[in-house]
Structures
1.
Amino acid sequence: MRRLLLLGFLVLTLPAAAQPHPGARSGALGQANSALARDAWGGNPASWAGLERHAVGFYAAQLYGMPELRYGATVATLTALGGTVAAGARTFGFALYRQTVVSAGYARDVRPGTIRPIHLGLRLDAYSIRVPDIVHSRAVALSIGVVLPVAPLAAVGAVAEHVLVRGPARTDIPRSLILGFRYGRIDRVMIVADVHKELRSPADLRAGIEISPLPILVLRAGMSTNPHRATAGLGMRIGALTADFVAARHFALGWTPSASMQVSW
Amino acid sequence: MDAIRKHAGVVVIGPMLVILTVAIPFSDTLGGPNPTVQHLDEVEEEAVVDEMPEEALELAAIRLEELQDLLDTKLDLNRADEEAIMALPDITDLDARRIVEHRRRHGPYQRIEDLQAVGISPATIEGIWPFVTIDPRGTNPKNPITIDVLQRWTRRLDVGRGYDRDTTASRYAGSADALYTRVRLRRGPNVSVGFAMEKDPGEPLNWAPAAGQLGFDYSAVHAAMSHIGPIRQLILGDYRIDAGEGLLLGQAGSMMAIGPPAHRAALRPHTSSRESGYFRGAALRLDPTAGIQIATFYSLRRIDARYDSTDATWKLRTSGLHRTASELAAMARIREVTTGATLAVQRPGLRFSGVAVQTRHDFPDAHRRALDFSGAVAVGGPAFGFWGEAARRNGAPAWTASISATPAPEVYFWMQAFGTSESKGASHSFIGATGGRASRRERTVRAGVRFRPYEGWSVRLEAYWRRIPSHPVLGATRRASILVDYEPAPWLQLHGKIQTRQSDRLRSCAVSTGALRCARTESRHEFRIQADYDHSRALRTRFRIAGSIANPSGDSRDLMERGMLIFQDVRWIPLEALQLDGRLVYFDVSDFSTRIAAYENDLLYAFSVPTFSDRGRRAYVMARLRLHPSLSLQAKYSVTVREDVLSFGSGLDETDGSRLRELRIQLRWRVQ
């Protein structure tokens, strides 16, 4: 019975809005990731631009502590073709509902007469949604993003997530416009804020803060308004290895622990 | 009609913008070279349109066309007369008089900053700088010949059922294409010849010269000359007249929304695509002595009218649409003959004008005559002004009064009251704020103040009250708004707006004793924040977040409706001859009560203010390409996708599907 209820919950709500973007760092910042730069997880595909090293990352989460809502993802980025080429995959759900996404993207810096480089990126997501013996539908979605440094310590970002969607499952794919802001130094204190508007959901205001008290330690906290959620996490950088942890508290559904690890070379 | 594109009921929300506010990109200081602005939206056209009240939208099209002409031609402040100077944004008739008076006493202006000597604020000077030029010698210009040819084609790629091929059903008579052609030839500022033709979507192109139909259902032709001996101005063909406060000739009540109070005395060729609100015939203006202007005019037009059998009267039609059998049947049904005269007297600090207009309508079965007249006065000095006009129009009295004051530098206050009485019918297709319609009893009061508290800041507070006592549903409407603009640096502009509006509505209330009339109060609140950032001369980005909350039922706070709009906009100039604009809009609006409008870039001489009242996305890309120094091409492609709908629109405009695409192309050849 519990599984049936979960299935209904998943089909009706989670595909649209509740899945976090992979990456414990952006999760700890309340998912306010549109203005982040040089982030391998590519919440904004433009944040892949400017990455100077190849990277591989892994992510795992258990939404609201429920084993049926496990979420895993991986990403790889390569500096190539004058920019960054990225590929990734993520999977979510359990035996009665499985959503799998395979992604590929490209990002690069451009300077259209500007002093500071502008980061542009796009990502193609291939969705597969399977409910055994009931439905198996697919869709392909294109997302585009830009991060615009506007001052030495400030940047704005915009993401048109899934701006073009094709395929039978297109109605299940969330389509969002995200506008965000970042201010501060990544190696000291940085704040981020996003307005996330998914077409069928009320606007979600997201904000986060990242503090680096030690070169190897990063503390983070964040919040979002729709759903009401508070997040806290930490990250560690040891040589080529970066590990991030986050615990997100949904005010109705409970805790979501997640972690990601990234290796770059 | 094409100047104002109606997207499923375009309505512009927002308060009245009393002052046309323009800003020059990249102008750190005044006194440099004249800004090389070619298109009005480069000087913040949206500052005019985005805040325009609904009733003034059509006038905004004409006003913006005048401003674009000024951008093209540049007004020489050392040669222009008061009337021409008054056309500049933010310049009142008293300002214009001071500018001319100072020039007469002290000689030609040497620099634009010299205008500060006559009390024009630096902000106003900055606003008019793109539109003017200064020849310090004040010499006669060469009067070059200018040829300006413009061709526009637009079409919705997803059309309504009125364009179905099924000939058994009711349908539009013509194609979905819209065409606009304009040709103008000028010799200096004194001679102008031109014509304009337009076909709206759905209208047929009928070629029947014998019947006076030359393809297009609407055409406007003019030949205008000025400063020829004692003749100040002569126009043959189609023309418009503004006089006084616009109560009789002009559009009082709306005019305030697109400019400061002003005593107008303008005679202009009609070149707009607006198919009503103009005269056809001859107009002559003489200035027999200094300070006295006399104009007389004669007009003969065939205008649209529909016979209303319910009250056995003819109703004038001013929409200009001739698409369906009933609209075509109403086309040019009656003859309208207008004769009139205006007299204006100017003295230092005082202007007076009088207008008399006699109209005769020849219906198929009857004739009707009407005499309308008005008197207007304007008095004031550098820091204070009063404008007033009283009229008899449509057989009923009407009046307007305005004051403005500049109590301190960078502080501008204005207030206007406007009143009309109920009339039985419209005496003319042009006269009155609601041309072609009978007047209703109405009282309107508007007031506002604009000030600049600190460097880079501009604040506008505005209030509005209107009451229509005789209306069966509408009660009093109250509106208040605050607009704040902050420009911390030339490359960053921030804009915020909050507006609240309350409207009383009458409705039937079912009670135990039966249905009674009772009142409810609808409320509506809006906010908007916007940021513009110039990354370089080649790249500008803009984002906006707008929201609205409404209580359309006026009953319970639990029934509040909500709307939100968010867009990201980018302008990129990759080449000197190419400019690209693009925007992605997401909107999620409950219903019409929470509708949100957003100005967007469009072709030259056109603007677009789509209104969003449902859920979906809209995107457009627009390119402006200068193919040759005298030849430019503009193209715009837009697509709107609505969620959860099978069709949208209504009647013959009902379109299947959730997507609406449109393509607009314009070619302009301008040689000088």
Note: The CA atoms of residues 50 and 647 of chain B lie 28 Å apart.
2.
Amino acid sequence: MKKVCARLIAILLVTVMLAALSACSEGGGTSSADSSTSSSKAASEQADPSSGESASEAESTAPTGSGDTINFWYMGDSANQLQPIIDTYEAQTGNKIEVQAVPWNALTEKLLTAIASRSGPDCMQTAVSRTAELVASDAILDITSEIESTAEFSRDLYFEVAYDSLKMGDSYYGVPWISDIYPLAYRTDLFADAGYTAFPETWDELYEACVKIHENTGNSTFNVIEGPYNYNFLMSFPFQAGCDVVTEDGVAQFDTPEMKAAMEYIMKYIDSGISSDINDGVDGAVKLSNGDAAVTGGSTWLVSTIKDLPDAEGKWDMALWPEGPGGRDSVYAGSNLVITTWTDKKDACLEWIEHLVTKENILKHYETSSSLPPRIDAWDTVIAESEIGNMQVFMDQLNYARPFPKVAEMQEIGIEFTKYAERIMVGKEDIDTVLGEMQQRAEEILARSR
Amino acid sequence: MKAHKKYVPYLFIAPAILILAFCALIPIFIAAGISFTDLSLLNLGKWDQLNFIGGANYQELFRNADFQKAFGNTLYYVGIGVPLVILFSLVLALLLNTGTSPVYAVYRAAFYMPSLTNMVAISLVWLFLFNPSIGLFNQLLGLLGLDPVKWLVDPAVVKNSLLILSFWKNTGANMLIFLAALQGIPKEYYEAASIDGAGWFKKLLHITLPSMRFSFFFVVTTTLIGWFQYFDEVFVMTKGGPMNSSISLALYIYQSGFQSNRLGYSAAASMILFLVIFIFTLVQLRLQRSGD
């Protein structure tokens, strides 16, 4: 009886331990990997028959043919847009791509888990704004020499800003894949009524035009209130005022005259009453279509949204940001392809990345997902295929773009900046006071790791 | 065999204790440990760069205006939301308990429905209701000749707008618990009271409410904890804005941990929230026991 009892206890304890461990790990780190396999397995199983048969056939042509499985993180709600490109890669090389779609708003959480466990993806798509952070946390590989030795990665093929966004010091930490750029969108008819056949070229001209439009319509003109809620839009103002926001060696620039000029320019619209200071959450495309805005921040997303709004038809266009005292630079965002430091499949990853950035595949991805290509030679097709030809503006803005300040704490500083900007724009607090506090806050954040 | 007898009860509770230890207690201790470090995305996984910084996170928390605001807002949400929800769910339960016709079942379902609905779906509808220019609420106010209210835009109003939404969403679940308790009270008590000539109010005071004491305790405790951890509504409706005027402690913890990557700091904030909830629950338990 004693023995039975002891055995019972032992079995019970082991079962409980196992149950507890699996329950715990479900809530913890490995859940990301678990959830990934369910969706991607289905995808890879679908692709399996074709890749299985072609693997042997492709063996002679395949560069490696090692049958590696690459774990790739793709940003977005689903990886369907990538499937055709994966299929051709798997057929060509016999390698397998296990793709996991990571929603943009879950990126930080996912990165935290991956970096904490030093596992997860072998390579991934990641936002350009995260480069400095990922380099500082020793999560992504320096691939400068590979970039120099691979034709498809050649820096001449890409917009300068695209490679600049992943350069830290003299090293390059990835390959550009998607260029996000945010020019402006405006109502051509309202500007025409105010006597403008073309979009204003400078900050002052734009303001004057908006004053005239407001006299005509009485509505809000430049949708500046987007600022505190749209980081990319907000950052354009200090850039154009000639402010670096944070310098590359980590000096905050919030108390500079340039930053003040940027905030004053925004507030000129609000204080004079020609732009609304109410953030009602209505999308910029809808505001443009309703006439509740004459100018708003533009994106490829706006272009695809506004097409469904019949009121806007024929009355809108894209425009380059006007020139401020420091130029007309807007924020360069978008995504790069990076290889993690913990992978043991670096060569296979490079091969996969090379496949992703060929002109053909980058255009294929543009067609399925509207992600703008960073390769200059792909833009002829992009512009030719755009419905009203206004993709040219996106390309032009790419020549007036700069990446986020490359300091590891930029994410936190950026979030703080939107909050302080909200205090100025919505709370109507004194610009000098708020910027002074923001400077202090940024210095505090930057001092932590130095 | 006899010697084993005293272990047997422990054996039976072992599964629960172990799961609790691995999934709740140990993580709490780990979080408490992390709160004394400068853990962030940058030194995660590089333990040689992790520094023990003593109470610096806590000191910063108490100096930080955003944290103070989040703390104050949370007390506001709890202070108004909890009594309001409990009172109304109790009143609703009492009213629904007065009859048995199918109409009551319809109302019961209707009141409970919001609790079942996904918060994100709810937020889509309520964002429209609250819209300052095209929203239904302001249209109705306009019909009454009143000025429009900037529901989610005005820092002075936004907390109350969220309270209205949460009140609507959370009343139903508690109502159901109260209703179950009400229906469990033996009819004989009321019959005896009627014979003694007790009126409606006397019955409520001396039979209904005392019989519901346990469910009352349960509802108050879970509601308190739920409201201290107030997150979903703020997260999907306002993200804590405008100007942090609606931010709650739970959202602040999320933002500092998962957006600003400051894990040590946000662990410190969550320890404070944990302590506050712990103290309130302890007081609750004491009150319940002294009542027995």
Note: The two ends of chain B are 39 Å apart (CA to CA).
3.
Amino acid sequence: MAENPPKGPDDPTGRRQRTKRLGDHLRRMYDSVASEGAPDDFLRLLNEADKKSAARAGGSASERKSTEDFINTLNEAQKSSKKD
Amino acid sequence: MTSDTTMDDDAFKAELVELIPHLRAFARSLCGNAAQADDLAQDAMLKAWKARASYEPGTNLKAWSFTILRNLFYSEKRRSWRSQPLDPEVAEATLVANDNPDAAIELLALRNALSKLPDDQREALILVGAGGLTYDEVAEICGCAIGTIKSRVSRARKTLLELVEESTSGFNSDPNIQASDTLEEIMAEAHALSGGDRGAG
């Protein structure tokens, strides 16, 4: 039940309800895409990039600009050696 | 792990995968067109992956990756995609997703109205209103003050409401929507608003 029936387009209650409905629609629009999950082509692309960076990390000096990157390099080398 | 200055690649990847649905949804709201939106979301995902060393663990990966997506969108002038007409595929999906016909028409009106909003207002409204981000996070993503985001969201809501009301009260740019449907929608909505009898539906 509506607390106060709206009297017209300028009625504050009606306006608030309409704003709320727009908000609901907005969320539904966003969720309709978000609820589709992660499509296969996204996962494939990310996996390819992961493999590529793991392979490159062994040879390229530019990949080791900092200590952080160097740690990454070690992690990646470890991971790729574990791969079957 | 949280004390580390870098994040394990696998952990980063897992978190990024979790965010793919959100990257797609945000991209769709910016581009309108489904295929181009996915293209943008994929680019953003790959860019985030490449830049993973610069991500600080424990901070907000969602806001961080949204910033990347947004920057890509604007730097590559993809905003021109926005001028494209409503994607029929999206429109159809929108209709199918709703068993309530007047809600579906309103949703179409909303899509049209959204495309007429200034870019900065649209993104602020979508991020806050649908993406579940805080004003603080959106301010970070858009690179401006919280007050600016608040005012953009408020202006966007006002404009959107006006535009939707305008289009559902007669004029509609979508030729697929018949005038009679629009009238029915107004009547149904007026009925629902005054009677509140739609609770069961």
Note: Confidence is low (pLDDT under 50) at residues 59-64 of chain A.
